[in-house]
Amino acid sequence: MFITLEGIEGSGKSTQIRHMFDFLKKAGLRCAITREPGGTIIGRKIRTILLDPDSTLIEPATELLLYAADRVQHIREVILPLIQAGNVVICDRYFDATLAYQGYARGLDTTFIHTLHHLTCQDLGPDLTILLDLPPDIGLARAWKQLESGRRSGAESRFEKETLTFHERVRAGYLTLAAAEPDRFKIVDASQNEQQVQEHITEVLKADSRLFAGASAQKIRKYA
Ligand code: TMP
Q1: Among 27, 127, 146, 147, who pairs with 151 as Cys (CB 3.0-4.6 Å)?
Q2: Could you give the number of structural domains in the chain?
Q3: Distance from the CA of 121 to the center of ligand 1, in angstroms?
């Protein structure tokens, strides 16, 4: 099974992904954590370019193509092999982030973004997506606290430096995507404290019977 975690800056994805991993492990499932951008050696080089605050001249289309390039590599090198080996794969961001950031927030054509995903990634999509939702002013304040305390590197602050309006568009984009696919998306209120968010996510995971059934096998047949 393929699970993705999405949300704006400061939504607590990294913390919650570790709780998810611990819960699934304890439940006896084989699972693995990965992320975008940067889930492969090549991807980490791409990530450096994408998140560098000095990449100010980057064109929106260049940005889009670099995220797509990172994803192609990630799917082939990491995601599919992990699923094939029987893991529940939990990915910190995936294609919905491209639609929300490069599409809804940056203004690139979402039909083109879907076509690119179809041509380069054969439309591989997650079975379950948990959206950590919170107001961008709260999220950005948290993100900046992490940057200032050194918990997150300033070398990765390009998106934190975007305007509040940009992050409002990202959030609205995510909520639009979630409304369009209510079966796949589960929205969690990320303005709550860490433990409350963790409990809500655990409920979502417990309620998903596919986690303990054969969704991974189906995916392997389709994309192998
Ligand atoms: P993160 O790994 O700390 O979440 O940072 C990744 C940044 O990249 C975040 O600001 C969102 C952005 N992003 C996109 O703009 N498009 C994408 O497709 C992905 C995966 C991430």
Answers
A1: 146
A2: 1
A3: 18
Average pLDDT score over residue span 155-179: 97
Show the tokens assigned to 26. Answer: 């304890």
Q: Is 36 in the pocket of ligand 1 (CB under 6 A)?
A: yes
Q: What value does the mean pLDDT of the chain take?
A: 94
Domain with 163 in it: 2-223
Residues 41, 47: contact at Cβ < 8 Å? no
pLDDT (tens digit, 9 = 90+) per residue, 26-48? Answer: 999 999 999 999 999 999 999 99
CB 159 within 8 A of CB 9: yes
Q: CA-CA distance, 91 to 79, in Å (whole number)?
A: 9
User: Would you state the structure tokens that stand for residue 173, as one six-digit string?
Assistant: 């984009």
Output the CA torsion 164→170→175→179 (10° steps): 150
Structural tokens at position 89: 């794969």
- Residue whose structure tokens are 């006896």: 28
Tell me the three-class secondary structure of 176-224, residue by residue: HHHHHCCCCEEEEECCCCHHHHHHHHHHHHHHCHHHHCCHHHHHHHHHC
Paired with 65 in beta bridges are: none
Work out the average pLDDT over 124-150. Answer: 97
Nearest CA to ligand 1 atom 21: 97
50: domain CATH number? Answer: 3.40.50.300
pLDDT at res. 222: 61
Closest residue by Cα to atom 13, ligand 1, is 97
Query: Model's pTM, two decimal places?
Result: 0.95
Specify the amino acid at residue 1.
M
